[in-house]
């Protein structure tokens, strides 16, 4: 069985748990105490030298870090990734944008607030400004659309859902983004959806 080195409240990990669950791929979770240094032990660094979760480990010893790489590996040949090259490129566009221009503010300001990280007021203000801009961009794109790419859910939606759904933890305000809020509700309404903070219902799921 696959082992996911995981952190329950991490959006990057939530993406992976959701896809494995939706594809019916059983896995067991190992909760890593990231803020207690658990992702920087010699044992963990042997799995991912970057010292970050998620990392997926196969029984034969293969390891795969990076949520996007894990999603793309398992989505191959499924309806989470369009077969058409142009549509796939649109999915990649949103996944890469999430990692560089969304997660870097929307997720970071949340972790600053939740884990009381020592960031100065100027840096926090910049993160809120950048996060708001990222959410506004999504809201504009989602006006008149149900999903980020084409007319069905894809890895683009899966990659962007987890941190957008908990953006208010970091002090971002979704009130002015009605299209974004409708998309969040649509995604959470998909059959089999499990919220990030649910400790149960993941392992060995099929
Ligand atoms: N690009 C990576 C980011 C992973 C990441 O930032 N993980 C955080 C938790 S959400 C982490 O493990 N941080 C520990 C650290 O930086 O020491 C991915 O998408 O998997």
Question: Which terms would index this structure?
Answer:
Glutathione S-transferase Yfyf (Class Pi), Chain A, domain 2, Glutaredoxin, 7 helices, four-stranded mixed β-sheet, 8% strand, 4 strands, single chain, alpha+beta, binds glutathione, 206 residues
Folded structure, characterized:
The chain has two domains: 2-75, Glutaredoxin; 85-188, Glutathione S-transferase Yfyf (Class Pi), Chain A, domain 2 (Up-down Bundle). The model has no long low-confidence stretch (mean pLDDT 96). The chain has 206 residues and is α+β, with helices and mostly antiparallel strands. It has helices spanning 11-23, 42-47, 67-75, 85-114, 121-142, 155-165, 178-188, and strands spanning 2-6, 27-31, 55-57, 63-65. It has a four-stranded mixed β-sheet with strand order 2-1-3-4, with helices on one face. Helix 4 (85-114) runs antiparallel to helix 5 (121-142) and helix 4 packs parallel to helix 6 (155-165). The longest helix is centred in the middle third of the chain and has 30 residues, at 85-114. Bound molecules: glutathione.
* Total number of distinct structural domains: 2
Largest sheet: 4 strands, mixed
The distinct bound ligands, ions and cofactors come out as: glutathione
Rounded radius of gyration (Å): 17 Å
Question: What is the string of SSEs from the N terminus onward?
Answer: EHEHEEHHHHH
CATH topology of the largest domain: Glutathione S-transferase Yfyf (Class Pi), Chain A, domain 2
The helix-and-strand class reads alpha+beta
Mean pLDDT over all positions: 96
**Euclidean distance between termini CA atoms:** 12 Å
Shape label: globular
- Helix percent band: 40-55%
CATH class wording of the largest domain: Mainly Alpha
What percent strand?
5-15%
- Number of DSSP E strands: 4
